[in-house]
Amino acid sequence: MDEHITTKKQCFTSIQKKKLLGAIDSFQLCPSMDLVVFGTSSTSASLQNLFRTVSWQKVASINLEESEKASNGESTSSTVCWSPNGRWIAVAKDSQVSLYGVEPLANPPTGTSFSGSSGPSEKNHSWRTQNPVISLYWAHVGRPHATAWKLSLEEEEEQTYWSYQQYFLDKSLLFLPPSAYHQGGEEGHNDSQMQHETPTSTALPECKTPLSVLCVSTRETIEFYLHGRYPLIKAPRMVVDSTKGVNAVASNDLTYFVFFSQVPHAPSTVSIYHLPFLKTERYPLQAIASLHSSIESHLGTLKQSIPDVMNAWKSSLKPLDTKIQPLIRLLQNYGVDNKSLGEVLKQFILIGHTSESSSLANAMDQFFTSVQMNDQLLQRMIRTLYGALGNVESQTRRSLLSPVQALVYQIQELSGFVKFYRKTTTTDSNSIGVQDLVDRSYSLLISVELLMKSIIESRYRVRDFCGYLRHAGSEIKARGTAPQSVQRENAKKRRVPQAVIERLLAVMNTKVDISLQDESLTEQILSIPVSTMLKESPSFMSNETRNKGVSSPKSVIGDSATVAYACNQVSEAVKSVFVNPIANLPESIVPQDITLPQFEDASVAIHTRIGKEPSDDESFDEDELEEYEEASDKSYFCPQVVDGSYSANTDCRQWTIVSQAHDNIIQLYAIPLQRSNESEDTFAPFYLTTSLLFPSSASITDTAFYSDDGKSSLSSGNDSGTGKEGRQKLGVLLRDTSQLQVWLLSYDSAQWQALPFKSTLIHPSDINSACVCQVTGLAEGADEDEMEVQESAIFAQTRNIEESDSSETEATNQLWLCGSRGVGGVTSASDGVTSLELLDLEEDEFDDEDDDDDEFEEDD
């Protein structure tokens, strides 16, 4: 067929065409929503922008922290990836990895517009690695194929066991007290800030959430994090000279992870990591990782809320402290400065005006008759004070008590899980560590409850004290006036009961703790240890600090730790418990390296496919086999091997596909990952290969797999897809006759050659000629579904891409595809300007559907 006789059909629909200033160092399409995140870098800062693909409306911007390299004037770059459900964004810059929730970014707590930006303080979770991060990849487990896979008896028992056990998990809302924190801010419409911080609003994983793994590739290691938070294991990178991005894919059951690293002037290497424990221990790890995420989230909320409550508490008492402050200066002027303010007030209440306390009485008279002690000003101050203290109590309940209750519940769940679940380790050391964590969580709960008790008690003490101030001021002002004077009438109205005087004397009679000497005047006078209980220093509250009067409970025996100290103790215990969750977890993983043929400026893409197991009468139903064999669009990978090649059974559960492009040739390699009739530790004895030949005038720039794994979903719980593959194609970005084009083709109909496995794969020149397929673009007016399948020929959908006005040799072009959303993108960067074009790959721009609709309307 002549390549230049017909004009190629312009397929796909252009969604957006944009010109961006600066280079894009990261670009990712959301797998579940019409969103795109891309990063731009400079010498001062890095910025990740979140946009809607259809309307190009800016959702949010993520301002990353300035690194040491940027402060020294060096250029820095960042990498980004989406979580499998599209509700989290993982961003890495240098050695800092951060997770951001999409919902909090789109709906900030301040109620700002979508164009708002988020700073480093709004990240939900972050940590640092030992080496700079090169790339990120996030995958989650999928369901077994309904017909292509035959589960073993152990696998069926495991699924049945979990189907019953999952109903007993994630029941915290049924046992915890009603709270906006537990229910994601549903209670209380004014709690917008707390709603932003709650775990439910940020879509934290639950025990029944399908297991997901975040792979963080550094220059020396690859780190695996369960649910993007729980550090599981580190594996060495065999190719450490590569500083470019690392491509990564995972098998459907997360048993195999495939990584590719490009090293300049060296053969390309594909590394396959085998992690069988992610399959055998999936459900224990899934539950433990979700509990770890919840516990760490609660601890993070507590650590953030403790200083906030401290500041709110000090601000609430400031008006009363300001009122009392002039009394200290008066006492110093009258020479009554040898006692604390609480003792002076107690003496004045008991003795009053006597010859022995004339100086004290004169100072008190001058204080209560001053302008700042005007009754109207006092009433205004009391209303402000009561409201502020009520807000402190509400904030403490919401941001301290509710997270602690949830934390204790989750730790109890973890303790029961470790003791009961049949596959978790039950060694004495682990049991002791979990029990110590439970005990420390109880201590933290007691400390927070004592804090709540002190705050509530302080409201009553402040009420009594303010009432006495009005009473004493009115009595002093009424002294010496007529019996029927207004001052005496006011004094009668503002007189406090004797019980109030007795309660105040009981409080002031308590020995003041040393830790209260540095606190506010109100806390010293009324013996309120709230600030002491919130301090971060590892000090303890003694029983002497607590009042033993009428309103104090006497059931708490012994000393209790401060809230901050108890929180740190729980955090340390959590780290020790989660060090090694599974007893048989390996200390290290050695990958299987595969070397590709060496070419100059080769483009490599990797992918994983679902295959089928050997078909026999015992494993599959014959009707189902015939139905799938006759179907033109199979939901699994079924390669067609040419006769005369290496004899091998190509039935395999999971495959990895490697695409290596150079010049106008793409060499595909299909490597089996898991075979049912062999041990999982035994590597496949063969591999498959085929060649795709493009027009001679074409030069391939970039390649990417366009696939729908059937696992992308916004829903949580036990939804992990259907287990069946969706669309499976290969995207190619090439330059043909000075025109940049996107080609999209299906490779399932290609003929494959089977070869015995070797660590170095076959060179394209040595492949069987029967396995070379000519790729041709669809002609104008042709329909891909109506094209007849020709032997050794593949038809591709094509589209021309507009570029920037810069020279072609200096441009850097990249192709980005998202099969689950049917969207693709092409970036072309040159001279500080990046051209971006987003395409709808499932709809042609010049479709005849509108004309057909008009014909139907005329017939009607």
Automatic annotation (TrEMBL):
GO terms for biological process: anaphase-promoting complex-dependent catabolic process; cell division; protein K11-linked ubiquitination. Coiled coil: none annotated. Keywords: Cell cycle, Cell division, Mitosis, Ubl conjugation pathway. Residues 272-471 form the Anaphase-promoting complex subunit 4 long domain. Residues 839-860 have a biased composition (Acidic residues). Pfam families: ANAPC4, ANAPC4_WD40. Residues 28-103 form the Anaphase-promoting complex subunit 4-like WD40 domain. It comes from the Eukaryota. One of its GO terms (cellular component) is anaphase-promoting complex. Residues 837-860 are annotated as: Disordered. This is Anaphase-promoting complex subunit 4. It comes from Cylindrotheca closterium.
